[in-house]
Design brief:
The chain has 235 residues and is mostly beta strands. It is built from no helices and 30 strands. The strands form 4 sheets. The chain has an 11-stranded mixed beta sheet with strand order 3-6-9-12-15-18-21-24-27-29-30, with no helix packed on it. An 8-stranded mixed beta sheet has the order 1-2-4-7-10-13-16-19, with no helix packed on it. Strands 5-8-11-14-17-20-23-26 form an 8-stranded parallel beta sheet, with no helix packed on it.
Length: 235
């Protein structure tokens, strides 16, 4: 058995770390692992083989913060899918779904009533708002901010390293900022530090190299303004 974990008869194969208390209303699948200090809300559903509060593990050359993150938190009524992993310090809001095989890293926050789709990767130090929908196999890079009611289609990639792995000492990463109600089409790529304005729309397959104005439709590689978002599509 992994050090610091104890078997529990609450569910088949369930392993609990020190200080973990499960509310009676929580639904626990088989072979779930909940690491020390993790907080599980009332009515949460933890499906088979998910991992909550996985200890931080970085490669020897990683420049990410090595400070020990706080315990993971899963809000009331949230669902964590089969095989999903929440690293220590991840915070999942009430009623949010983190689907099968998704990965949410340290100090990332996902707001209430949001959806993180199958195979999505949410990197460290990301802030995601309320009612956000992130679909299958999208990647939300470290340091990004995703405001309320944003839609991110399958296969979208946000990037944060303008030198593609060859940053100089002290040079900072710059994640994307997605303002309230904007939509990012399938397979789009956003370059480091770009901002997509409120209720803007990025067309499928676009490469966004510069900021997008609010309520503007952009498309192409590089993405260019095409028209305004029509009134009937606004929130």
């Amino acid at each position: 058995m992994t050090a610091g974990l104890r078997a529990s008869d609450r569910a088949p194969g369930l392993l609990l770390g020190e200080g973990v208390e499960l509310p009676g209303s929580a639904e626990i699948g088989a072979n779930v692992v909940i690491h020390a200090g993790s907080v599980i809300g009332e009515g949460a559903r933890l499906l088979d083989a998910c991992v909550i509060g996985k200890p931080l593990a970085l490669g020897p050359h990683s420049k990410a913060s090595r400070e020990t993150p706080p315990p993971a938190e899963v809000g009331a009524g949230a669902l964590i899918g089969t095989g999903a992993v929440l690293v220590a310090g991840a915070r999942i809001g009430e009623g949010t779904v983190v689907a099968d095989q998704a990965h949410v890293r340290e100090r990332a926050t996902v707001g209430p009533e949001s959806m993180v789709g199958r195979g999505v990767a949410v990197d460290n130090d990301v802030t995601i708002g309320t009612r956000v929908r992130i679909q299958t196999n999208a990647y939300v890079t470290a340091g990004s901010v995703v405001e309320d009611d944003v839609f991110i289609a399958p296969g979208v990639v946000l990037t944060n390293d303008p030198r593609a792995g060859r940053r100089q000492p002290g040079e900072q990463l710059a994640g994307a900022t997605l303002r309230r109600g904007c939509r990012i089409g399938a397979g789009a790529v956003l370059l480091p530090g770009v901002e997509v304005g409120e209720q803007a729309l990025v067309g499928a397959g676009s490469v966004v190299t510069r900021d997008v104005a609010p309520r503007t439709v952009v498309m192409g590689a590089p993405a260019r303004p095409a028209r305004e978002v029509p009134e009937e599509e606004l929130l």
